[in-house]
Amino acid sequence: MKHKRLLIIFTTAAILLTIPFIGMQFTNEVNWSIADFALMGVMLFGTGALIELTLRMVKTTRNRLIVCAVLVILFLLTWAELAVGIFGSPFAGN
Prior knowledge:
The protein has 94 residues and is mostly helical. The chain has helices spanning 2-26, 34-57, 61-84. The longest helix has 25 residues, at 2-26.
């Protein structure tokens, strides 16, 4: 079951990476470079791996939910900052 769950997490991350790739084929509005794909791949696969590690290491369901929610929120905030610069940091995408 553990390996099946990890496979599902990584497959989902790979499918999410194909969405902008397909979008680039049909419109000029989506313009990702290799670095964009690499960074998002690291973020997706890293978050997925951390969630899997959490599910394996943390025993109680309540604590699992809390840690996974924090990981997802951190991922989403980082993604939003890189995309549009909601915090105005030096590495913002605007």
